[in-house]
Every structure is written in C-alpha cells, then in structure tokens.
Write a structure and sequence with these properties.
Layout (H helix, E strand, L loop, with lengths): L1 H24 L1 E7 L3 H15 L2 E7 L1 H9 L6 E3 L3 H9 L9 E5 L2 E6 L15 H4 L5 E4 L5 H12 L3 H4 L3 E4 L2 H9 L5 E5 H6 L3 E6 L9 E6 L6 H10 L2 H9 L3 E2 L2
Parallel strand pairs: 1-2, 1-3, 6-7, 6-8
Antiparallel strand pairs: 3-10, 4-10, 4-11, 5-8, 5-9
Length: 257
C-alpha cells in the first residue's frame, strides 16, 4: 500500500515534469532591437494565438543584445537594427548563416514635442541647430554603438552638420530612450526611426532625413547557432510571412529589398 502511494506520487511528479518540459519547448526566446517593440509584440501575440507558442522577447539596443548573445545568453533568434552587429555574430560563429535574412527597412526622422513652434524644418548645412534646440540638446542613440545613432552620424556628416551637432547631443542607450527625452521635453529635438515617431502621441515629425544620406536602415534576422529546432523555426518563418509583413507595415516598417 505504501509502495502504491509512492508510485502514485512518482507518477504525478513525472507528469508534472513532462508538462514543464513541454511548456519550455513551446517557448521561443527572441532578442530584438528596441525599435521593434510594438510591432513585434503584436506579431508574437498573433503567432501565440495561432500556434500556441509563446515568444519571450528581450528588447534593447542591437549592440547590447549582440554582446549578450556572444557571451552565451540563451537567445533563439536575433533581430538587429543594422547589419554591423549581425556581421559581428556571424564572424564569431554564433548564428546560423543560412537563416540570416533581411526582414525590414526603416527611415530616419527628426521629431519635436507636439507644441514645438515649427511644423517643418529644413535640415541642411545652414541649419542653426543650437537655436532650434531652445537651450536643450538633440536626442540621438549613442553614435558609438546604437544603430539609430550610427545612421544619424552618417546622415549629419553627409549633410555637413555633424561637427555642429556633436557638442549638442544627448546620447541615449537606445532609440526608444532618445524618443522619451523628446516626449518629456528634456530635448526639444531628436532623431529617431520613423516607426518610433508614428507610435508616439507626444511628438511630431518635423523633418525626414534623406535616405541617400546614410546607409540603408535594414533589419536582419537570424537563428542563433544550434537553436534551429522546430519550435524556433516555426516563429522564425512566421516573422518572414505575409501575415507578419502586414503587421510590420501598419507600424511603418517596409519590406527589405
């Protein structure tokens, strides 16, 4: 009788462990650039509803996430806001090269609080940035490692504005933090992705930076090395699907060419 009880306990424990293993197998861990937060959350919710697989998504700057993956962080999929950090992971053999795809594209814009006195600014070499900032700073992603900041530096260099802008920068850890500085009016102007500007109710776009003034803003995706299991592949392919593309498009992302 005692053995029977123990047997039942072991059986229950076994079923519980099996359930935990199944739940773990039905979860995909995604490391994604912070600019994708709203769109990718919706894509993940849609996939979970259809496939019953939950995506746990960690958002930060592409550089931060790439370094974490390089150090062994348990990511299944990496979605970067530029090619540079994906190149880095490929060079150190941390992603599956065959799964690397260009997923999305974006654009750079200058934003200001809704009550900023101007609705449009001509961003040229003659622009008096100091005056336009009204005693504040220009919010940007850190140009040393944040992709949005790197693109901003390229664009401003091309437009002949970088040396004027450099001492006026408020450098943020990621593009969403740069947007937040403008929303709070701690910076009267900021350079962010068009998709970030579109989701904010507190800022307006006052200028779009020319696409030919910087490298193409592309978002590559890849599966981390040895993580190409069925559950991960399922969500990876869903991100590349037409259904996901429609979600991304609603948030302002274009399909990569």
């Amino acid at each position: 009788m005692k053995c029977g009880y123990v047997g039942k306990v072991l059986c229950v424990l076994g079923l519980g462990l099996a359930s935990m293993v199944t739940q773990a197998a039905e979860t995909v861990t995604v490391f994604a650039a912070s600019s994708l937060t709203n769109a990718l959350n919706e894509v993940a919710a849609l996939y979970e509803k259809q496939a019953g697989v939950k995506a746990r998504i960690s958002y930060a700057s592409s550089s931060t996430l790439a370094r974490q993956i390089a150090q062994g962080a348990p990511a299944d999929i990496y979605l970067s806001a530029n090619e540079r950090w994906m190149d880095y992971l490929q060079e150190i053999d941390t992603i599956q090269p065959k799964t690397r795809q260009l997923l999305l594209e974006n654009h750079l814009v200058v934003v200001a609080p809704n009550d900023y006195p101007k609705d449009h600014i001509e961003v040229t070499a003659d622009w008096d940035l100091d005056q336009a900032l009204e005693g504040t700073r220009l919010a940007v992603g850190d140009p040393n490692h944040v992709p949005a900041g790197l693109y901003t530096k390229e664009s401003f260099e091309s437009l002949g504005l970088w040396q004027q802008a450099l001492p006026l920068l408020a450098q943020a850890n990621n593009v969403r933090s740069a947007l937040l500085l403008v929303e709070r009016k701690e910076a009267m102007l900021g350079v962010v992705y068009k998709t970030d500007a579109m989701i904010s109710q507190k800022v307006k776009i006052v200028s779009e930076l020319p696409d030919n003034s910087h490298s193409p803003i592309s978002y590559p995706v890849a599966i981390v090395k040895d993580r190409d299991i069925d559950t991960v592949l399922g969500f990876y392919h869903f991100m590349l699907s037409k259904q996901a593309a429609e979600v991304f498009a609603r948030y302002g992302f274009g399909e990569a060419h």
